[in-house]
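[agent] plan:
  1. take the single chain provided in the ticket
  2. run structure prediction with default settings
  3. attach structure tokens to the ticket
  4. add a short note for the reviewer (M.T.)
[agent] executing step 1
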Amino acid sequence: MSIKDIIIVGGGPAGLTAGLYARRYNLDTLLIEAMLLGGQAAIAHNVENYPGYSKGVSGQYLIDQMEEQCANFDLEILHEPVKAIFPNGRYFEVLTESDTKIATKALIYAAGATYRQLQVKGENELIGHGVSYCATCDGAFFKGKNIIVVGGGNTAICDALYLANLANKVTVVHRREQFRAAPVLMDRIRLLDNVEIITDTVVTEIVGSGNVEAVKVKNKKTGSESEINVDGVFVAIGQVPNSDCLRDLVEIDAAGYIKTDEDMMTSCPGIFAAGDVRQKTLRQIVTAASDGAIAAHCANEWIISNFGQD
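[agent] step 2 finished; step 3 output follows
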């Protein structure tokens, strides 16, 4: 069984950056990604807040550039799902879907998180064409337009406050009467003239031919159904961290996010976490890249301390 210096699980911005830095440290590094590289970043139509691109850049282009950088440093990439991760003496073993076992001195877990979807007709077909899960990523495309924000927590209301400065009208649709968002946020949102709040209501379908044109909604109390003409739908009903493989090894919070220190080290020495799967305040491409760089640097230091220079 081969033994790597570092195995990185996840090929989004955090994993790719970790791979780039690890290879620049001349570490024998393997990045494992079940799907295409890039994760959520790859589907962003235009990224306006990544430093260095004054006119914005597509998420896919940004990921392509990261992949090319990694290729320049001969980063080994394996496209296969990871089934399990477990300790084995001084090492960690990664079990892939093909039942291949690969040992590593240190592990960087950057498997990301998945936006929780509405699971309604039209949603998947219109992602990137009016359906978004990131207001700060895509809000600028809806200046002067009518949009809906779905959700009732802090993220949804913060998104609505942000989007209200850009859009002609923002409609907040929440499935309950009471909001989970902080009262101070609710006080702010209710003061805005271009925000309408609809409660006890769920989205049943997103309508559009090529781009979002409307949403169908249903009142849970009365059963009445209606259609609202909009240009965009921002879904903010939470994320699901992809942390299952480490749940028995590291400390996680109530929502399933992995806890780390400022060096990206988890509660299990030798296992680092980076990107959206980590408990953190801001989940953006730039913060994921930062996490990956720190994780690789600190993993290198950890390997030197525990395995020497060999």
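[agent] step 4 note for reviewer: The CA atoms of residues 213 and 278 lie 35 Å apart.
[agent] ticket updated
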